Predict the structure of (salmon louse) hypothetical protein.
Amino acid sequence: MLLMDLLASFKEFLKADKVTKIIATCRNKEKAEELVDLESNSRVKVLELDVSKYENDYKDFIAQVSDELGSDGLNLLINSAGIMGETQSLGDLTSEAMIETYKVNCIAPTILARALLPLLKKVAKPDAGFGCDNAAIIQMSTSVASIAENESGERWNSSSFIASWLG
């Protein structure tokens, strides 16, 4: 359901004339047919990215994005990747599961934002405020990140809560 909501938002971005280029990512293009179909629009490019693989600070991915953008900068980074895993009570948690969840939901978006910072700075206008003519990072989360909705598993809730505060 989240993917469909993101696809709907993606399609809304395509309606805006100011949007000249959209680079979308997915772990596997073969499993993201609806997203890849949007590449029929010349403003859309879909790149593969597994956010959990950040050991080289996403150097290869950043090179691909830089090639796509040319001399233009990046106006908007939307971090929406995340994993939930199976629901576990506190007594069933393992350190490995917690680390993997934090790696994808908290560390990876921060490392990705840092890696893309030079491209964001190309268009940043510190005094311009929020808008299409400025650079921004949006950290997506869900209502599960709220303390009030804390029922779906300790590792997801805590990592999602932290991720929502990183932005």
